[in-house]
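Thread: zinc ion complex, take 2
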Amino acid sequence: MKVILRNPRREIEVAGGRRVKDVLRELHILPETVLVIRGDELITADQVVRDGDTIELRPVMSGGAR
Amino acid sequence: MKCRKCGGTAVLELRRHNAAFCAPDFLDFFRNQVREAVRKYRMLDKDEHVLVAVSGGKDSLALWDVLLDEGYRTTGLYLDLGIFDYSVESRRKCEAFAAGRGVPLIVASVAEEVGGPVPVIKEVTRRPPCSGCGLSKRYLMNRVALDRGIGVVATGHNLDDEAATLFGSIAHWQTDALARQSPALPSTHAKLVRRVKPLYRLSELETSAYAFLRRIDYIVEECPFAKGATSIAHKEILNRMEDASPGAKHNFLFGFLEKARAAFERTEAVELRECARCGQVTTGTICAFCKLADQVKRTL
Ligand code: SF4
Ligand SMILES: [Zn+2]
Ligand SMILES: [Zn+2]
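Output below.
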């Protein structure tokens, strides 16, 4: 399956057929630091992603003194 | 995962609330948190004109969206920081949002006001970019509000921003900063407008989800100067705490606001004067903004 990462935008391939949670763990991403977007929907970390899926992991952190 | 409210498929899990929500119930939850913030700190009157400081990012556009939805009369303020493509793109997002909603947007340029954009200010002062940038933003927000006769500025600071600021202030025991940290800052002088942070009860995850679910077109890319900012390092530490113990950030910030903040409030107020140059409020003779502008203009 395809995973889109941001800042900067890039794409990687990882194994599907498992929960989002497991993908995040493999990528060393804490679950609450990203939105998990599939198509035009948000999905929770317990959802299973399949091999043909594409998900975007969009960071939620914004920074600097504001 | 099922929605706590309706049992439908959840789109977002909120571990600190031990809950998950479907999209409509999450949006309700979000609006309720904003209402609670406004009520608890008496941030805004229902018919008051609000200046909403927008950066093009998820937080400030989510804030503008929710205030419009709640029926407030708002004007947006975008400060053009002159930070390369980031500023070009973020300005476009704000203009598109304002046009789409049919609401007014004021654009003010740091380069015009200070004499140079943020990257130049950074070179001239040899200080971290966020320092000159933050100073200019606070000054210009207040001045634009005063010029337009608007009594309150709302900013998109969220729970993570506030917790990171608190963490930084405690790390250095900056007691004046601790006294000033609040979701609502009153006007302490005729030339200072109120400042409120209606999103302080909502995490970055929640403001991002709200912006996404409301189909707000915000800038996902960060300011190129954000990378080295210490506030990011503090957020990362807090995120690790949160992961180990959901609710840690919330308890850290809310515990401070409810139990500790009052202890830092100064009994003796500092004397505020008007800057000899621009008339804005300062504790000295010339305000920090005018000094910065002088320094930039002198060097260029
Ligand atoms: S990260 Fe720093 S320089 Fe960039 S917009 Fe935020 S405060 Fe300004
Ligand atoms: Zn529901
Ligand atoms: Zn001044």
